[in-house]
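Reading a protein record of the kind used here takes only a little practice. The record below shows the convention in full:
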Amino acid sequence: MKARTGLLAAISVMLLVIAGLLVNLWTGREEPQTGDKEQQENREEITVISSSELPAHQKALIRIAREYESMHENVSVTFDFVSRESFREEICLRAERADAIDLVICDRMMMPALIDMGLLQEIYVTENWRNHMTYQKMWASTRSDGRYYGVPLTCDPYVLFYRRDILEAAGVQAPQTWEELVEIGTSLRQLGRYSMAFPAKRTEEAAEFFLMMLYSMGGGVYSIDGDAGLNAMETISEMWNRGLLPDNTINLSDKDLAGMFADGNLIMMANRLSMGTVIRDADVSFEVGIATLPTDTAGSGFLMGENVGMARNADPEALGFLNYLCTPEVSGQLADALGTFPVYTEYDYIPEETSWCGTESLEPQFQMNNRGIEPYSTWYQIAGGVSDGMMELLSRDADVQQIAGQMQDQVRVAILEE
């Protein structure tokens, strides 16, 4: 009986000791958690909304954000990636709800509309900053009434990707003109493989492709129903009627096309330079070439890419991160990750790193001859009118003359609303 009583007493003591240890452990863990929480509450939160959709681009931006945080202990950077289809609506909705948005990274063609809606604030851009930009024409989409509301972040032009192995086997080079492209595409038609493609799922993509073709033929937004516009429409209609384009062209985005090309289902495609990362990462077994888009009379080195701007009610700390993003070194990191062109002259650019496919780098050509589609604050309306016409062109027996007239009317009305 005494032995049993002693055993119970020993067990009780052990339980008390264990309970004490647990209390000490719990108390010891609570204090740093409270400190971490207080530190987190004191951190400056920077929210960046971005239309970047490529995983490589998103990872590069997040990596840069972590680097910035490591240099600024009281700053936290969060990225919200939103599709281009719903980007404008998302920003307007957040502004209406007074949700926190500090920085906006968007396609250069979108920015004038965001400026016009009062969603961005003016940024002081020094003359030195402007002059160090490699492609000076890219500033056009960041200005309004002589004031700057953004900074070019990436240079991601449209180029022509092509199956170098197939073209070389056929004894032909990358087409220099749109007429050559149609003829080469016709001669290389194969069952189960399309000769040519361009992105047309999004309104803006379809509009950009048509306008680049229009401009390369010597036209502009005021001459859609003129000779250049009619030639552009007839060329697209000819591609469609000859079966060079995928049957579901209007449902294919830039990423969709890059995937089709990597799978071996396309011979040529017009797409953004950054889409080469999709092909590169797929480790394709065939040879790939990259060339400038075909032209007729006016050149085709069209500058595209993304800008970064500060939201209307941004936290002042956000300007520090914007400046960091736009340093030559960080901008160069983005160019390396995307396979695009660096936007600052100071970056030590190595052509071989971007020209991953083995063809000669296109950057010198773009530096010598480049142009941009005029930025309009009514870009969404303009793109809508052009895209509507493109949808009609991608159908059998399209009335080119009628489509040109309708498209011109819609675009002219949109421009007058500027």
